Automatic annotation (TrEMBL):
GO molecular function, one term: methyltransferase activity
EC number: 2.1.1.-
Organism: Phaseolus coccineus
Subcellular location: Endomembrane system; Membrane
Domain of life according to the entry: Eukaryota
Cited PANTHER family: METHYLTRANSFERASE (PTHR10108:SF1123), SAM-DEPENDENT METHYLTRANSFERASE (PTHR10108)
InterPro entries: Put_SAM_MeTrfase (IPR004159), SAM-dependent_MTases_sf (IPR029063)
Membrane-spanning ranges: 16-34
Name listed for the protein in its UniProt record: Methyltransferase
UniProt entry keywords in alphabetical sequence: Glycoprotein, Membrane, Methyltransferase, Signal-anchor, Transferase, Transmembrane, Transmembrane helix
UniProt cross-references to Pfam families, sorted A to Z: Methyltransf_29
């Protein structure tokens, strides 16, 4: 029943009106703040999506005591607001000698020791510690500025990665040879008896439809060794994501990155690879030591997930060309599983050295799935349509072929280099998405030319390995395509998923949560780029922890370039200066930090002096 105003006040209900009024004002302020926050066209972080999905949410970190904080001297004050430049951090050196190459989420030996099983390579998967790293990793004794590209493809400084084990272990296969102060990479490999360049040509002759650098642009090399396959494919305009676990093949991925070749640490174990569905044009395995028929074929189902429809799987291993019982048992299992997956053999051959190769092709139509006598393996049901592989278990099913907004099967991207600038097949078909994509590409092209290349005093001749920490549509990477660099395009797990679009464009990337450590060795990147990442990242994790991780990843003399709001730049600046980095601001929007060779004095050095 309605209550008239006079009765309302007589009954002393005006406190209710006052409370309701305050509530309405709060709602109005929230909506105004939300619309302002999400209106930034270059911020791919979404306020709505800043929380990670429950199944892969980061565990809450138990913070250690922070490093000692003291005041800076007047000489260190370089013009920033006093309250933002009044602190420095008393950093300590990580004392354990093994910490030179420490990877927090792969070297968590307490968690690894507690594993109940290692049967499925669980000990090579990520196990991030509860507490963050709050010390700085030392440099190897005698560390030098890396050999510049392209010379680095063939030789690197031994002192930068002083690991001789692989030299001895693979000396007959010419993976790597020590020559004076260098490690030299002759282009050999277990299956590359006549050299990797000969092997690449052999693949092309075996299946001319591969068309390196035109039809086939984005490649995954499983169990890549020192990544010579991917390194030599660069001459063919092919970008290869090379990966291997951190195992007894000492420092193989570290060698690859020091050479300037794209690579990451990963393993096909119990979890999905951190790549999107239908992303790679070709997947390669040359004696990669993966048991493809294990667990009913789950490793092959994972390849099927990340391989583009019509894409190729090139497998060179003894079951392809040897007749002993063990190899034939594996071959027969592969025949059964690949047939059930509707893969077909499109080529099989032997080269002059006796090495065999078989090439499978993933179907481009769902008709084969429908005609199978048994629905085994079944097609996966992805009800929410999300493409999440972060800490997700391997499938026991086949990922359905991708369709566009009209229900039509997605097409193969245009030939390289047209695919870089064309509408990606996985981009939504509506005009708004298309317009947003092309505006983003244009903006990055202008921004990189005007600011990043010519306005930030970056010595691009010293830059080879680049990481975009919040890649979006990979406009930054696309704008750098004419420079002799490669870019790891990282799509954070709590932002709109654009990684398929990145790979449709002929570029490489992976998912990551920046509240955790990245799966790479220390000192492996020359430049890290962040565009409007920190503004929302600080809502979930400590900016100091992220800075320590950036310091771990960057090489001495490497750059951090941050485009963000001024309050974020003011928070980052004193942290970076406490690390003895040089820091410059440009247009109150870009921060350029440059890491030096400084490391804190170790306790052993203090004792000596």
């Amino acid at each position: 029943m309605a209550i008239v105003a006079e009765d309302f006040f007589k009954e002393r209900k005006y406190p209710f009106i006052f409370t309701l009024l305050i509530l309405l004002i709060c709602v109005a302020l929230f909506l105004f703040s939300f619309s302002n926050t999400t209106s930034n066209p270059v911020a791919f972080y979404s306020v709505i999506q800043h929380q990670a999905p429950p199944h892969h949410a980061s565990k809450p970190k138990v913070q250690e005591l922070p490093p000692k904080v003291t005041n800076v001297t007047a000489e260190e004050d370089q013009g920033l607001p006093r309250e933002e430049n009044a602190l420095t951090i008393d950093w300590k050196l990580c004392e354990d000698p093994q910490n030179v190459d420490f990877i927090p989420c792969l070297d968590n030996f307490v968690a690894i020791k507690a594993l109940k099983s290692r049967k499925h390579m669980e000990h090579r998967e990520r196990h991030c510690p509860e507490t963050s790293l709050h010390c700085l990793l030392p440099l190897p004794k005698g560390y030098k500025v890396p050999v510049p590209w392209p010379k680095s493809r063939d030789k690197i400084w031994y002192d930068n990665i002083p690991h001789p084990k692989l030299v001895e272990y693979k000396k007959d296969q010419h993976w790597v040879v020590k020559s004076g102060e260098y490690l030299v990479f002759p282009g050999g490999g277990t299956q590359f008896k006549d050299g990797v360049d000969h092997y690449i040509e052999f693949m092309q002759k075996t299946l001319p439809a591969i068309k390196w650098g035109k039809h086939t642009r984005v490649v995954l090399d499983v169990g890549c060794g020192v990544a010579s396959f991917g390194g030599y494919l660069l001459d063919k305009n092919v970008i290869t994501m090379s990966f291997a676990p951190k195992d007894e093949h000492e420092a193989q991925i570290q060698f690859a990155l020091e050479r300037g070749i794209p690579a990451t640490l990963s393993v096909i174990g119990t979890q999905k690879l951190t790549f999107p569905d239908n992303g790679f044009d070709l997947i390669h395995c040359a004696r990669c030591r993966v048991h493809w028929d294990a667990d009913g074929g789950k490793p092959l189902f994972e390849l099927n997930r990340i391989l583009r429809p019509g894409g190729f799987f090139a497998w060179s291993a003894t079951p392809v060309y040897r007749d002993d019982d063990r190899d034939q048992k594996v071959w027969n299992a592969m025949v059964d599983i690949t047939k059930a997956m509707c893969w077909k053999v499109v080529a099989k051959a032997h080269d002059s050295s006796g090495i065999g190769l078989v090439i499978y092709q993933k179907p481009t139509s769902s008709s084969c799935y429908e005609k199978r006598k048994e629905n085994n393996p079944p097609l996966c049901e992805n009800e929410d349509g999300k493409n999440s592989s972060w800490y997700a278990r391997l499938n026991s099913c086949l990922t359905p072929l991708p369709v566009d907004g009209m229900g039509n099967l997605q097409s193969w991207p245009k030939s390289w280099p047209q695919r870089l600038i064309s509408k990606p097949p996985s981009l939504p078909t509506d005009s708004v998405s298309k317009d947003k994509f092309f505006k983003d590409s244009k903006r990055w092209s202008e921004l990189v030319s005007d600011v990043y290349v010519n306005g930030l005093s970056i010595n691009w001749a010293s830059v080879r390995n680049v990481m975009d920490m919040n890649a979006g549509y990979a406009g930054f990477a696309a704008a750098l395509v004419d420079l002799p660099v490669w870019v790891m395009n990282v799509v954070p797990i709590d932002v709109p998923d654009t990684l398929n679009i990145v790979m449709d464009r002929g570029l490489i990337g992976m998912y990551h949560d920046w509240c955790e450590s990245f799966s790479t060795y220390p000192r492996t990147y020359d430049l890290l780029h962040s565009s409007f990442l920190f503004k929302y990242l600080v809502q979930r994790c400590d900016i100091l922890d992220v800075a320590v991780e950036i310091d771990r990843i960057l090489r001495p003399n490497g750059y951090l370039v941050v485009q963000d709001y001024v309050e974020i730049l003011n928070k980052l600046t004193p942290i970076l200066r406490s690390l003895h980095w040089s820091v410059k601001l440009h247009q109150d929007q870009f921060l350029v930090g440059r890491k030096g060779f400084w490391r804190p004095t170790s306790s052993s050095e203090l004792n000596v002096h």
